[in-house]
Amino acid sequence: xKNRFFITIIALLxxxxxxxxxxxDLAVEIGLIPTSVFGDxxxxxxxxxxVKESTxxxxxxxxxxxxxLKTVWVLEESNLSIPFGLEYIFYRAYHRVPYAPRVTFYFxxxxxxxxxxxxxxxxxxxxxxxxxKAYAELDARGSFIGKSNYSLRIDYEALxxxxxKKVSHKNSVFRFGTxxxxxxxxxxxxxxxxxxxxxxxxVNLLGKNNRRGELLTPVPxxxxxxxxxxxxxxxxxxxxxx
Length: 242
Description:
Blueprint: H1 2-23, E1 26-32, E2 35-38, E3 63-75, E4 80-100, E5 103-126, E6 133-145, E7 149-156, E8 161-167, E9 173-189, E10 192-206, E11 230-241
Antiparallel strand pairs: 1-3, 1-11, 2-3, 2-11, 3-4, 4-5, 5-6, 5-7, 6-9, 7-8, 9-10, 10-11
């Protein structure tokens, strides 16, 4: 029994040492990734122009909230890293529009977009302070574009009444895309680092469906195609190296 016990302990120690040796090349990264939509795709257009037979925009103005969680395989000798993980973008639009005397429209539009990413990062050069490295990264992206949730609340103040209309014409879809980043990774206190980057991504490079209309708008009416959707991101993350 004692021999078996010691053999088990030795096996566990070897397995722990082996796991630690493998983790030495790994890092984890977590942070915020504000995202702004651009391009001729209707996502950042106003909900309605008031013109009959006009498209309804997505209403996503400015930067949208997002979070990032990734594992990074660091290949020190080759200046390469392979990050893979998840980016989750919360597209949210709230707008108040005075429509007529004592009549006000309140628009809401929600879409969640989790994105799986697999990248290749290359260290371009090292700055002469704080152990800062500049890098470029190219990644492949798979985005799950969630169901479009759109609602309009009309307040008739003179009549003290409210009307609510909800629309969900577009269900969840999946799109393949690609992205490019330029960033700086600097040491805070080993093994903690700060990562700051800017990126541009093409969300729906593959998988477009013109019958569905634009990717990030709530209603397909008067939409004849799914135009390219581009994201611009500015991020600050914490990077922990094992």
